[in-house]
Amino acid sequence: MTALTDSGGNEPRGLWSAGWSRFRKNRFAVAGAVIVLSLYIVAILAPLLTPHDPIAHGDLPKTRYLSPRTGHPLGTDKFGRDVLARVLYGSRISLTISFLAVAISVIAGSLVGATAGYAGGIVDTVLMRIVDALMAIPRLFLLLTCIALFSRSVPLIIILLGATGWMATARLVRGQVLAIREQDFIKAAEALGAGRRRIMLRHLLPNTLTVIIVAATLRIGGIILAEASLSFLGLGVPSPIPSWGQMVFGGRDALLDAWWVSTFPGIAIAVTVIGYNLFGDGLRDAFDPKQGA
Hints:
- The chain has helices spanning 13-25, 27-44, 46-49, 60-63, 83-119, 121-136, 139-149, 154-163, 167-180, 184-191, 196-207, 209-232, 244-250, 260-287, 289-292.
- The protein has 293 residues and is mainly α.
- It has a domain at 93-239 and 253-291: MetI-like fold (Orthogonal Bundle).
- α5 packs across α12 (209-232) and α12 (209-232) packs antiparallel against α14.
- The chain starts with 12 loop residues before the first helix and ends with a helix.
């Protein structure tokens, strides 16, 4: 990918404007962006979109497992709670967890990858062997082990999902830095006496920005699925806080008689993952045409 900054650190507008122009011409990418934006709008406006409390139990004999109908468009669960309300409020939890976990993993992966790629030598070798070792361990096994050692909470899940997902970003950023560090503007900065920290923060990381953004958008779908998997195993977001994975888990005992309890949060997960994947693929193709060639 062409460097985003010149030797003075100024970002040429041509690359960004051309990238966004290509992005807007990609109908699937625009559709993904619309889906993602709509999800966050719905999450913010959740209190305005439903009058029901997502955690309040209803009168069980009267409201338990009501099928979709007027008053409860998506039905109710085994505790008489409105499924629509739980899906809407659950979007806040699922989207927040995925966003913050990806932020942690991208920041950690970018710093490790940039350090390894620019330092080279023994530093690069040690860091990459650590990355290889961590990638060899199944992520779900790491998550289950850590959750078993600590009490479940939303902050813990965010930290664990972020701490176990940075390795791929590190390898991606390292490869980009290896290509950039040989370019003339980096050599010029070194010749002018710029320190390693300044070169890495001012020149190298900004030039990997599009790679980092694309990696982040593509990772969010995987994080949502990982959180849903943990919740489905009963090790995710603690009850009664609603999350999509927890709702799918909660409806597993009544899939035939009350299919709506698991189906609608499952659809929400699928739509979110598809939206982020379309968005991420569009960004990758727009800002790195060689990837889409």
